[in-house]
Design a protein that fits this description.
The protein is of the alpha/beta class. The protein has two domains: 179 residues, Rossmann fold; 169 residues, Rossmann fold (3-Layer(aba) Sandwich). It contains 16 helices and 13 strands. The strands form two sheets. It has a seven-stranded parallel β-sheet with strand order 3-2-1-4-5-6-7, sandwiched between helices. A six-stranded parallel β-sheet has the order 10-9-8-11-12-13, sandwiched between helices. The longest helix is centred in the first third of the chain and has 18 residues. The chain is globular and about 60 Å long.
Amino acid sequence: MRYYIIAGEASGDLHGSNLIKELKLQDPLAEMRCWGGDLMEEQGGVIVKHYRDLAFMGFWEVLFNIFTILKNISFCKRDILAYKPDVLILIDYPGFNIRMAKFAKKHNIKVFYYISPQIWAWHQSRSEVLKKIVDNMFVILPFEKEFYKKFDFDVDFVGHPLLDAIEGLDTPAEQREVIALVPGSRNQEIFRMLPVMVEVAKQFPERKFVVAGTSSANSSVYKSCEGVANIQLEYGKTYELLNRAKAALVTSGTATLEAALFNVPEVVCYKGGLVSYIIAKWVIKTKYISLVNLVMDKPVVAELIQGDFEPVKLKAELDSILNEGQKRSDILNDFVELRSKLGGAGASRNTAQLMVKYLSE
């Protein structure tokens, strides 16, 4: 089979790489052409575009780069037709991937969507669109199956692939000493988030802080942590960092769930451009922004958003989770329940098996 896979972010590259690995076990003759990153390439995917060239975030950032985005869309359409895949596999990245799904459907190419766009948070009417253009949807959050059922769209809940990625990693609590700073993976969000995190770290001179750096970002966005005695910058080692962290300050996104699955009490942080924030506040339909709180349907971890994301409040929240008291204990107990709700390891294998099965039918 010929597979064309599109992942537009670092997390999609991770989950795409594990999916490719499992697909090759199910289909030894599989050929993979991909939009993704280094991890997908390591598993044998031929990378057409790297995700670092695709990451535009926020209303103004997208508008500013609109010609690049349109050029990428046009190129992708031509590339799909030239490759003639048996299936187009889309991994999250909705703004781009929903366009590609519509295009593929128009050209009678089977479409699988792995990791649903978070349309339950905003633009829920897109469910009707997805039902028409996606042949099979593979969801990773337990409430998503029920959400799509409301639109008469039967999807497969396969479990969360993060559980595969971290299987076997668990440093004992007494060996966890550092505090992780996880400011995100895009230039714009790191530039906004990291200086505030660094300001708080300076107020804990006796503690060691480690910044989770990513090579896909411009090195200049990490300038605020240079020369700070108790801060170290490590590139490409986010999981190793979380596995030895006692607590974390994390920019909203997949990393909030990653920290929880590594049993790291955390403060979830987010600050966007003013216009982007006003638009998001208007359209987002959920009570929480972090996946931890969304899955648990309660405020397990603190969320400091926009104006609340400032040094005084951030320091107070960090103090509260570093303290070996009831709050920290309650968070860790909730993380145990979170794992159970996410369905256990095996998401990548489950998804690959179902994909090959549906293709053979």
